Amino acid sequence: MTIKRLSEWLQTSTNTVILTGAGMSTESGIPDFRSASGWWKNIDPRAVATTEALTENYSLFHEFYKMRLENLEKAAPHEGHQILADWEQRGIVSLVATQNVDGFHQLAGSQKVEELHGSIRSIRCHRCQQAASMEHFLSKASCSHCGGKLRPNVVLFGESLPQISWHTSMEAIKKAELVLVIGTSLEVYPVNQLPMMTSGKTVYINLDMSQHATPFDLKIEGKIKEVLQQLEV
Ligand code: APR
């Protein structure tokens, strides 16, 4: 019943925006953060995903992101990513705003993607901001320009979000007729404020239904790939 209703909403909406989180990529073999098998179940995020971690304990910081990059090499977008890219091709989806840093939406063919938490696939120097190569980062080299520490272009806890991505996503969601929030616990500010900013209908697709801070017009409990495959648009 809920699948049928969402299919109808997708067919009639003239402006649908998608907001995704780590749950979008678990079926590609990439752990999320807060479910039972998530990264934060046995790693303290403050020890690896903050600027303090970067400056105070670079070895642990570097090991964490190197491991995630190696994990990424062995993974690929799944059919759910491809369905969202197909919906963009067909004019059904106007934007994918994602908290994910894996680049899977783009790899699957989505072109209108805003990476609200940056990307793990590009590297810069933390001190002089100069771009650096992935090889240099993986080999734990220092910045060839200033000798500073190299880091992925992800948003670490406490850092501000990329302003253009944030405003583009916020404006799109405000104007959307339909917002699908997919595979996110909505635990992290300020992205968790976005769903409430729309005047359109809101839908939550997730395995874990325990988040109650954000009211939704429709909630679908299930695995993302299966739910997206069942939708008839
Ligand atoms: N199908 C449906 N839901 C899923 C699936 C799946 N296959 N796999 C995981 N989920 C759900 C989990 O139940 C969980 O509620 O996706 C959600 C993922 O939540 P988090 O792990 O908190 O990930 P996310 O919301 O993206 O985290 C936001 O926190 O650590 C930071 O920067 C990091 O971008 C990340 C941010």
TrEMBL record:
<feature type="binding site">
    <location>
        <position position="125"/>
    </location>
    <ligand>
        <name>Zn(2+)</name>
    </ligand>
</feature>
<keyword id="KW-0012">Acyltransferase</keyword>
<feature type="binding site">
    <location>
        <position position="128"/>
    </location>
    <ligand>
        <name>Zn(2+)</name>
    </ligand>
</feature>
<dbReference type="GO" id="GO:0034979">
    <property type="term" value="F:NAD-dependent protein lysine deacetylase activity"/>
</dbReference>
<keyword id="KW-0862">Zinc</keyword>
<dbReference type="InterPro" id="IPR050134">
    <property type="entry name" value="NAD-dep_sirtuin_deacylases"/>
</dbReference>
<feature type="binding site">
    <location>
        <position position="143"/>
    </location>
    <ligand>
        <name>Zn(2+)</name>
    </ligand>
</feature>
<feature type="active site" description="Proton acceptor">
    <location>
        <position position="117"/>
    </location>
</feature>
<keyword id="KW-0479">Metal-binding</keyword>
<protein>
    <recommendedName>
        <fullName>protein acetyllysine N-acetyltransferase</fullName>
        <ecNumber>2.3.1.286</ecNumber>
    </recommendedName>
</protein>
<keyword id="KW-0520">NAD</keyword>
<feature type="binding site">
    <location>
        <position position="146"/>
    </location>
    <ligand>
        <name>Zn(2+)</name>
    </ligand>
</feature>
<dbReference type="InterPro" id="IPR026590">
    <property type="entry name" value="Ssirtuin_cat_dom"/>
</dbReference>
<dbReference type="InterPro" id="IPR029035">
    <property type="entry name" value="DHS-like_NAD/FAD-binding_dom"/>
</dbReference>
<keyword id="KW-0808">Transferase</keyword>
<dbReference type="InterPro" id="IPR003000">
    <property type="entry name" value="Sirtuin"/>
</dbReference>
<dbReference type="InterPro" id="IPR026591">
    <property type="entry name" value="Sirtuin_cat_small_dom_sf"/>
</dbReference>
<dbReference type="Pfam" id="PF02146">
    <property type="entry name" value="SIR2"/>
</dbReference>
<feature type="domain" description="Deacetylase sirtuin-type">
    <location>
        <begin position="1"/>
        <end position="233"/>
    </location>
</feature>
